[in-house]
Automatic annotation (TrEMBL):
<dbReference type="InterPro" id="IPR012336">
    <property type="entry name" value="Thioredoxin-like_fold"/>
</dbReference>
<keyword id="KW-0812">Transmembrane</keyword>
<feature type="transmembrane region" description="Helical">
    <location>
        <begin position="35"/>
        <end position="56"/>
    </location>
</feature>
<dbReference type="InterPro" id="IPR036249">
    <property type="entry name" value="Thioredoxin-like_sf"/>
</dbReference>
<dbReference type="Pfam" id="PF13462">
    <property type="entry name" value="Thioredoxin_4"/>
</dbReference>
<keyword id="KW-0472">Membrane</keyword>
<keyword id="KW-1133">Transmembrane helix</keyword>
<protein>
    <recommendedName>
        <fullName>Thioredoxin-like fold domain-containing protein</fullName>
    </recommendedName>
</protein>
<feature type="domain" description="Thioredoxin-like fold">
    <location>
        <begin position="106"/>
        <end position="273"/>
    </location>
</feature>
Amino acid sequence: MANHPSPKDRRNTAREQARQIAAAQAKKEKTVKTILYAGIAVVVVAVVAVVGTLVWQSSRPVAPPQAMVSGTVAFAAGEDGIQAVQPSGEEEGADVSDLPTAADSGAAEGAAVVKVYLDFQCPGCKAFEETNGETLSTLAEDGSIVLEYEPVAILDRQSGGNEYSTRSANMASCIADSGQSELLPDVMLELFAQQPGEGQTGMEDEQLLSIAESAGVDVDAEVANEDSATVRDCVTEVAFDRYVESSTQDALNDEGLQGTPHITIDGEPYQGDWSNRETFAADLIRASGQS
């Protein structure tokens, strides 16, 4: 006659089965939690690494382009017209050692430093250059003045969303960084000649590069910027956007810039009438002590 488990034995068996099921479930949940926490940890580490990289990139000094100091390029008398010279002022990391000083270039003793802040999207800057560009080049060529230009970007909102002010100023930086800054006056002249209207979409990269090439720039020349190989790459990658932004903010915050064109003579704002070519030229010559 078969022995049947007693009620007590059945209860003990049921308890043991329930304990085993609970233990298996707990082990499964622990494994899932371990995998989940490990995944979260990996994500957190990745996020921290990305954030850390972005913070480091945003906080590290922006390396200036060659031949520029605080966003400025300078020109003075040379053997064959005007030539690029060392801009006045100082900037950490700036490398202008390959350029002569204005005095070594041929600028007269006491030649006034005439600085023009401009935005390539600015209609007033176009009018200024059309009126006085030739005068400035002539006075720089004969040693009467040292001519400085600082492209800034304060009118990005007026270029149909493609940040033309920043991108055109960036191209000037790229050209300077390739050692071809002596070509910038011709590049600037053509940029203003083809200036997009306010509110219209700014020129695309290939249009900008075409203007540079028409002025004699070798767009396949290498640049010093570590993130770009050539002028073309530098333009398409907008490699100096942070530099343009930084130098523009410095001009607004520290140099008294309120709008463009803004002209200073030996660091002091020009208060005369630049729309009158003869008057403006006479004021520059007077500032250089030649009258």
